[in-house]
Structure formats: structure tokens, C-alpha cells
Amino acid sequence: MALRLWARLLRGSAVLSSRGVGSARQESASWLLTAGNVACCRGGRNGFIFTPACFITSEAFLNRLMKGNAAEADSSFYRLPASVPPDSGEQLSLLLRHPDQPDNSKVLKVAIIGPPNAGKSTLSNQLLGRKVFAVSKKVHTTRSRALGVVTEDDTQIILLDTPGLTTPSKVKRHQLEKSLLVDPLNTVKEADLVVVVVDVADRWMSSRLDFEVLKCLAQHPDIPAVLVLNKVDLVKAKDKLLDITAGLTCGMVNGRRIRVRPVIKPPWAKKRSEGDSELSPDEHIAEPEGSAETNSVLNKEQLKTLKSQEGWPHFKDVFMLSSVDSQDVETLKSYFMAAAKPAPWQYHSEVLTDQSPEEVCTNIIREKLLEYLPQEVPYSMTQSVELWQDGENGELDISVKLHATKETHMKMVIGAAGQMVARIAREAGEDLSHIYLRDVKLKLSVKLRK
């Protein structure tokens, strides 16, 4: 069955296209990625215009996806957006509450993995429709596994956001938490689908898959995986995305080989015969070794083979998007909804995350510390919640003490005339107001830890 590179999914229309922008007589151009071909029809004098949010998938799956979108459009059911209760007891009670699931409930557990700073938490926040996970430009913002829940209609998507995959030597050298090593691997074990996020704007990261990512995929070959090429909005030469795709997938997607060739007429304009959906024997790809039974430990020969690989040839689908664009991410979300399998919900529909309100608060504060403080300073800071109570006018009063290891660090956090700590408190408080859906008054103090 032919695979196609479809771009932005807008109520059923296709997509990754390049259009000449001058005269109406200019010939349009389009990209098509198939198992067997990647086609590019170029036309127009003004070059290639890229529309992001593309995915490669089988036509049968696309048909299911479109039916799902049509059903969603016809549904009159509306569910209020979830939020995090500001009270720990209320959050715990919500997590323990029996799921209010419909008769035909469906579930999909998605593990989002990748190297540090690939945009995993940004993607998770967009999928949730609300900022819950800390995000910054520095590495290792996410320190442990965090769970988010998307509930729409009869479907529940459980997002497992993980720390960036790293090596034991780096954890030891930089005195990082062991959770950075353990959590991603343990998370993949419980997932129904693995999403590998790659920053295509990073020349080094986009040239080959991170070795730790390859090891993780090889240890769990029985779990389906999809590739997400993130930050495509930062790539100027959009035609490079096809070369990146070919490299990171070893030229194979969903068991079919992909290659590039020019065409004059878009293939969907041609009438396809029924026999086109059949796979010829040479178009199949062998399943990864150990797919029948997961190999938790790789032997030396397997590790040697992985080191020579640039990509993973067993991805089921490939997406190209910008995780900061909600419309881009909606395509991926629709994919998850269509891939969900009949199963009882694990959480009540009002659950947004399994994190406590205090954990959410300290993570958001750490995000601001990472954003505004240089080098190792934010990584050495610790926090303790001193006050957490309702204010007189219904607002939430929070007081957090920041502990610095050096006096120079403490001065940097405070800033000139206390401006830096005031800015961090103000911005973190605004983010928390959106998460808790109530006014938050956040007070930060800094103390030297002896």
C-alpha cells in the first residue's frame, strides 16, 4: 500500500506543497513521499513554500483518521478543559477518583523520548492544550518522568514526557539525578507507542539518531515507534527535510523503502488500480531482531551494529512539525486519537497530570531560573515551599525559598535591587495562574545553603 507524505491536515485535505506565488498561470508544485518514491514537482518562479505539519502514513490509516475527524465534527459533546487543582488533597482525590469513562472508551499510552532540548516538553504542553511541563533552552529541564492526560470524547491519551536521554558518564560527571538515566527506559516499557523527537534545526542532531535513542528503540522493538521532526520552522532549506527523513529512517518507513524521484503529475491525480495496495515481496522489510520478545539487554554485537547506524528503519510514521504551533500539533494529536485501542480509561476526565501542585510550582520556578541565570547556577539551586494557602480575596498565596550553594550565585538570583528574583516570581506566578485557573501571588526569597 503506497505511503504518502501528507502535510497539514485541514478537514481532510492533503498538503505538503509548494506554490508559485506570482501569476495565476504559474504551475503549482508539490512534494510527495511514498514507499517507493519521494516526488517533487517544482513550478513557479518564486521557489518552494513550505507548509509544516506533515506526516507519512498508510492510506488505510489516513482513511480511519478522516472518519475520526468527521465524527468529531458531528459530535455535540463538549468537555471543559482540565486544570491542576491548587490543593494537594484535591489533586490526590482526583487521581484516585474512578474514571468517568463512556461505553466505548479507548486509550493510548505515548512515551515521548529524544535527546536533551529536542522540544519534548513543548510538544507535550501543546498536546495537553495548557502549559504544565517546564520548558527552557537549556538541557535537562525535565529531570524525571512526568505524566499528562488528554481526554476527548471517548478517547484518553496518556502522555509520558521523559528527561532527555543521556549517558551514565555524563550523569556522573555533572552529578545529575539518576532519574535522567532510569526514567526514559522504564517509561518506554509501559507505552503503546513511542514518539522519538528530533530537533532538525540542530545540524548535529538531525544528521543521525542519538545513540541512546537507538539503544532504547532496539531494547523494545515490539513497541511501535514514530519519528517527529521538530522545529521545521527554523530550517530555511525545506528540501533538506526529505534528506533528513531518509537518513533518520535508513530509507525505510512502515516496512517500505523510500527514494526520491521527480514527477510531472501529482500521483493522487492518477486513478490507482486495486492492485496498487498490495506489497511486492521485495518491498517488505524484516522486523527487528527480537520483535517477538523484548531484549532488555543488548549484546556487544548488537551495540556495535547500532553504532554504525544513522537511523532506525522500523518507524511506522514520520511527522514534520513545529511544536510551538498548535495547529501543527493538532495533526499529531489526531493521529494519536485514531491509533487508540479499546480499553478502560486509567484516569478521570478532569485529570491533567499526575504531578502534585507543589511539583508543578517548583518545576515552573526552575524553568525561570534556567531561562535567566547563566551556566551552572540554576542547576545548583534547590527549593523549599514555605507557604501554600488561600488568600483573603480568593487568590493562592505561595512562598518558596531558593537555596544557593555560593554567595555569588545568590547575588545573581537576587539581581540588582532585587529585580531578577522579582521578575522570576512575577513570570512564574503568571504561568501558575494559567495552570491552576486562579490568581497566584508568588513570593520568592533566596538563602545561602551552608
TrEMBL record:
Annotated keywords: GTP-binding, Membrane, Mitochondrion, Mitochondrion inner membrane, Nucleotide-binding, Ribosome biogenesis, RNA-binding, rRNA-binding, Transit peptide
GO biological process: ribosomal small subunit assembly
Domain of life according to the entry: Eukaryota
Membrane topology listed for this record: Peripheral membrane protein
UniProt keyword annotation of Nucleotide-binding present: yes
Region ranges (G2): 140-144
Region named Disordered: 269-296
A GO term from the CC aspect: mitochondrial inner membrane
Pfam families: KH_2, MMR_HSR1
Region (G3) residue spans: 161-164
Bias (Basic and acidic residues): 271-287
Annotated region described as G1, given as residue ranges: 114-121
Subcellular localization, as worded in the UniProt entry: Mitochondrion inner membrane; Mitochondrion matrix
The keyword Nucleotide-binding is assigned to this record: yes
G5, as annotated region: 321-323
InterPro entries, per database record: G_ERA_dom, GTP-bd, GTPase_Era-like, KH_dom-like_a/b, KH_dom_type_2, KH_sf_prok-type, P-loop_NTPase, Small_GTP-bd
Domain Era-type G, residue spans: 106-343
GO molecular function, one term: GTP binding
Major location (coarse): mitochondrion
Region (G4): 230-233
Function, as annotated: Probable GTPase that plays a role in the mitochondrial ribosomal small subunit assembly. Specifically binds the 12S mitochondrial rRNA (12S mt-rRNA) to a 33 nucleotide section delineating the 3' terminal stem-loop region. May act as a chaperone that protects the 12S mt-rRNA on the 28S mitoribosomal subunit during ribosomal small subunit assembly.
Similarity-based family: Belongs to the TRAFAC class TrmE-Era-EngA-EngB-Septin-like GTPase superfamily. Era GTPase family.
Protein known as: GTPase Era, mitochondrial
Species the sequence originates in: Seriola lalandi dorsalis
